[in-house]
Amino acid sequence: MSRPEDEAIGGVHIKYLLHCPRQLWLYIRGYRPEQRSDTVAHGQAVDDTTYTRRADIDLGEAKIDWVTTGAIVHETKSSRAPSAQHEAQVRHYCLLLSRRGVNVRHGVVHYPLIRRTVTVAWDASARDRAEETERQARQVIGQDAIPPRLERRSCRGCSYIDYCWGES
């Protein structure tokens, strides 16, 4: 049986780490309330109906929305606000591809609901940031005790809110 800290790190791990380390810790241990989340369902619908001619790139530990000629990584988000979490997720995808020998140029986060894109640099500094974020994820995953919950106002819209804030 594999240990949680040996788990391959994908984009969802990075997103959860940066949103809430507790969420990452629970996710890696099999707690997955996202399947019942309206917010997650909405995001999936936006992904399924936007840029429909593109095919996901499945790396095993991560699914990249698409990669265009010249090795530009693309990610679609249903959010109405750009986020550092989204950029970190794209940097992680760039890292995974570069480890496979792909000469990645940069990434782009697409926000179709607000018709906006954000370019994510991929250079030595971005690689260092991606590797550090990956180390942080492994550290949280390897903890024996569950990380503390965030302040409740930070949990709005999180599919883990009932676990963290429900009556016991």
TrEMBL record:
InterPro entries linked to this entry: Dna2/Cas4_DUF83, PDDEXK-like_dom_sf
Pfam family membership, one: Cas_Cas4
Source taxon at top rank: Bacteria
Domain DUF83: 11-165
Annotated source species: Spongiactinospora rosea
Signal peptide: none
Name the record gives this protein: CRISPR-associated protein
Gene3D superfamilies xref list: 3.90.320.10
